[in-house]
Amino acid sequence: MSIFRPALAVLVALATPLSAQAATTLYTDVASFTAGTGATAQPALPFVGVFTGSETVGDLTFTNVSGNTIINDTTWSTLIPGREVAISGREDLDIGFAAPLSAFGFYAHEPSTSTGVTDGCNTTCVPSLFSLTLYSGAATVGSVAFNIPDDTLAFFGLSSTLAFDRVELRETTGTADNEFFGGFYTAPAQVPVPPAAPLLAMALGGLALLRRR
Questions:
Q1: What tens digit of pLDDT does each residue of 157-171 get?
Q2: Cα(106)–Cα(154) distance, rounded to whole angstroms?
Q3: 138 phi/psi in degrees, rounded to 5
Q4: Which domain of life is it from (predicted)?
C-alpha cells in the first residue's frame, strides 16, 4: 500500500481545481470586438410587444426589472439596425444566455431631444450613466461603467476570461427617458483544458504501471 500513497496524493493534488482571476476588456468598436473575441451577431429581434416578466428571443432571455420591457413592431431608433429593446421606466434589464459566454456586445442609442418616441427621449432628456455586470450563477465575474454619447450609434462589448451566463444592465444615473438597445453579439465560452491535465494523465499511467508490477 505504501507504494501507491505518494501517487494517490499526486492525483488528489492535480484534481483540485485551480483558482483564477477574471480579466475583462471593454470594446467600443464592433470590428475590434468581433476580431478580438470571435463574437457573432445574434439574429434580428422579432416583434414581441410589451412584456413584464421574462421573454426568450433566440439565445437571449430578457427579464424585466423596471417598468415595461418592449420589443416593438416598428423601429424607435433609426440608428440601431433592426428592432431594439426599450423600457418604459429606468433602463434596468437582465439578459440571460442559453449557454455560457466569453463575450457580449450590443448597440445603444441615447437621444437628446424630446421630439417623440422615434429617435427621441419622449420626455425631459437627462444624460444617463450605465453599468454592465457579468455573472456566473450568483458569482460576479466582472463589471464596467459606460456612458452612451448623445444621438450617436454607440457600441459596447465586454469580454471576460471567465465564462458568464447572465448580464445585468443598470441605469445608475438618469430617469425614465428613453434609451434603446439592440444588435446583440455573443461569443460562446470555450471549455478550457486544465493546465494539470497532462500531468494527471501521467499520474494515472504511473498508477496503472505500479499495479501491473
A1: 999 999 999 999 999
A2: 9
A3: -95, -5
A4: Bacteria
Structural domains in the chain, sorted by start:
20-190 (2.60.120)
pTM of the predicted model as reported, rounded to 2 decimal places: 0.80
Q: How many CB atoms lie within 10 A of CB 26?
A: 15
Question: What is the amino acid identity at position 18?
Answer: L
